[in-house]
Task: inverse folding
């Protein structure tokens, strides 16, 4: 388990998050070279899954937030949903997400978690920024929009 915790702590550093995410989020790179960090990705995904299972008996429905900069939602995504190629970081704190999304075209997702099967791993205790109340989802997490609207910040 130590290796999982070490990877999560390293991943929570913004610079390493950006480094790993770069290879996952660029669809052009994905097609040419599927995964430069296959072992690391597998360990992170396995760790997220194991950590999620730790809290399944004490699960309570919560709202999580995901913010991204300078993005807009395509119609195809609104109809069919889509998968995040990289690990997906979320927070219980809407203000934290608003700060990450601050740009000319912010995109913020409100994620209603209704079942322990939909829950990410609470990595707040591993994070260098525990006040962010961060929950991490593994690569290829699928999101399907239920409602399209505006969020008041």
Result:
């Amino acid at each position: 388990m130590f290796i999982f915790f070490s990877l999560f702590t390293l991943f929570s550093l913004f610079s390493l998050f950006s480094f790993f995410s770069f290879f996952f989020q660029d669809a052009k790179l994905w097609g040419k070279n599927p995964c430069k960090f296959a072992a690391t990705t597998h360990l992170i995904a396995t760790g997220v899954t194991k950590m999620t299972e730790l809290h399944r008996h004490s699960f309570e429905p919560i709202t999580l937030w995901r913010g991204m900069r300078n993005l807009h939602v395509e119609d195809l995504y609104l109809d069919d949903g889509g998968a995040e190629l990289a690990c997906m970081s979320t927070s219980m704190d809407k203000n934290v997400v608003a700060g990450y999304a601050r740009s000319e075209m912010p995109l913020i997702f409100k994620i209603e978690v209704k079942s322990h099967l939909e829950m990410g791993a609470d990595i707040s205790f591993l994070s260098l920024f525990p006040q962010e109340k961060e929950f991490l989802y593994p690569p290829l997490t699928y999101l399907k929009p239920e409602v399209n609207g505006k969020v008041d910040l």
Observations:
- Confidence is low (pLDDT under 50) at residues 1-5.
- The beta strands are 62-68, 82-84, 88-91, 107-113, 121-122, 134-137, 141-143.
- The chain is about 40% helix and 20% strand.
